[in-house]
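Lab notebook, page 48
Experiment: co-folding of the full assembly
Goal: obtain a model of how the components sit together before planning crosslinking
Operator: M.T.
Materials (sequences as entered):
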Amino acid sequence: MNNKEEEYKEIFLAEAMENFEEINRLLTVLEKSKNDKNTVHALFRITHTLKGNAAGMGYTGIAEMAHVLEDLFGEVREGKIVLDESLYAPLFKATDVLGALVNSVRDGKEVKYKGIKTKLEVLLKRAHENAADKSEQEPTKVAISNDNPFAPDAIGVGAQPFVEEEAESPDESDTKISFSDLVQVPVRKLDNLLNLVGELIIEKDRILASKVNSGRGSNEYARLSRISSDLQYSVMDVRLVQVGFLFNKFHRVVRDAATLEKKNVVLKLEGTETEIDRNVLQVISDSLIHIVRNAVGHGVESPEERKAAGKPVEGTVWLTAKGETESVIIEIKDDGKGLNYDRIKAKAIAKGLATAEDLERMTQDELSLLIFEPGFSTMDQVTAIAGRGVGMDVVRKTLDSIGGEIKVSSEAGVGTTIQLTLPSSMAVKSCLLFELKEEVYAIPLAYTESVISLYRSSIHKAGGGLVASHLGKNIAIVFLKDVFDYDPIMVGQSNNALQKAYDSVHPEEKLDIVVVTFNNRTVGFVVDKLLQQKEIVEKPLMKPVDKIKFIGGFTILGSGNVCLVLNVPFILHFIFSLSSQGRSSKNFSLN
Amino acid sequence: MAEAIVSKQNENTSQRSLQIVVFKLGQEEYGLRIDQIKEVVITPTITRMPQTPSYVKGVANIRGNVIAIFDLEDRFNLQRNEAQLSGKKYTLVVESEDFKMGLLVNEVPNTISVNASDLDESVGIIADANAEVNYIKGIIKTGTRLIILIDIFKVVDQELTTNLKKATAA
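Observation: model returned without errors.
Model output:
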């Protein structure tokens, strides 16, 4: 934990130093090209960011200083204060003090800042009075030039003692050029590095595979193994960022959404220090915005409704993250009215997503997942931020693309929780290798539930598909061969395309089955032969074969051959869209 | 003055030689511009891909790059004799900014130099008759040989991508 705080501090310091230098730079720019609007805007923005960061870290001094500066630049932006020579001196002074304050976080030195702060505050107050005066007397441009020269003068005299009083301490730090302990690296370079490490791992596996028979020098290989895997984890660690960086941006998202909907909503963050691969975070950021907006738009009730229901007027949305061994779980929870299952059912029938009988059989969890179907929106009225019925299906697709999972649980009147299970790293995956038609494929372990072995005779035809019962559970069985050979043109002629391989197998033959599960759908894939479990570095396929959705990527095996990694979400989607196409498969229930 | 320059340029282009890599598909000779070709390697183990047209043989690892391998004889529906069926020994690696892929060939391709004037680009009739994307850039005639110059990326580009989309959309 202590380590984490240190890391936070490091990051804050690096950012703050950068901000400080930027303020310095922009100020000098501003001094040369007077009243350049863009520069003032930039200054305002930077001081605002710095204020927010400092307040978040509990450095009140920096926050207060930045706050005054922000106000001042705000006024300049509004045109209420005109910057002239006499104003730059206090501004630079203030910036120096700010820099000293930032440094004091590192070395714990005490820095006096109240004086310059007060001075700026006086400036601000004066500007307000001036503005008021101006509007009273004569609101013409001439007035500004009359008022201005004397305004800074008066303040300059008033604040003089403060400046002198603290002149010594910050001055020594002025002359030093400070370097941050952090280096900023473009993600592209990190990606490249990780790619290289991936190749190294593959190459290592190849060497190990070829030398394992000779039996000599096993020590050297063990060392090579250890170093390369250490290297790999170090590189992966570099790519990890804290979810807090993303979560903190949501205060604004919630505020904006709540204002639009005229609701009172507060956002609470938990587990912000959980670490996740930067790319995963980037990929899901838009999805999170959708879900959070939905929670505010659909989940939380209006203040009147809440009052009537005996809840606090203020609704709450929680964003929680927690890390598990190979994944990170992000929860978006609201204390709103919960999902309206009757409405979901009605809508599903209206949109033709499912039939009434199907819906009867579905569990609440399965019903909840319907909201992620394309074009689904239970809100009858389209509002500005939610209810367009696009978005939630995009969320689902995004999560599918990185192998994330969605779970929804909801209680009427209490609230809705959407749980996203995300891989903590996109680079290395544990996979199960298997053989199919003499090719080696890999299934990410994240999707595999179990591996079973069944005689063909215990698998039965049911409707257009196959079913087997294992440990008291009925599982849909699919010969992967049939899926890969599936020919859309042949559909018209036979609707039991998924039974072809089954018919050609001898009844007494034992079949290896990998049971995969994704988003509440469980299917057993029949494969030719199970091989081993392996850590692989998955890479995306290149054009033009990247269009083949069955395959998510590839890795290179010890033999130098290519091993294709299955895209389980798509294959399941494909199978289930087949079974819902064929009317004959209507009676075939899963699980 | 200006005219003189133009005529000189014309002369230059007609004199300029083209470097063409020639390989046999079926009974015919096909050619590719040399700058589209990266290397020729002995065909590595090809891993088949599910749900691809038959002329996409799969993907293979060539010097750490995994690229798609195409069989143009299959693509052009060319007849092959018994010997050719036995195995395609070489892979021609072609590269553009977007694509990188391998083409299967039976023999080591050879490079020839032809005069730009030997290239007849007015072969629109063929493309029209085939009613396909015009991937034939022209016919080269040198001596008794007739070489069909193709733009490999046009062969693959639109048609394959639509094909693949169809296969996965189902």
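Interpretation: DSSP finds five helices and eleven strands in chain B.
Next step: discuss with group before ordering constructs.
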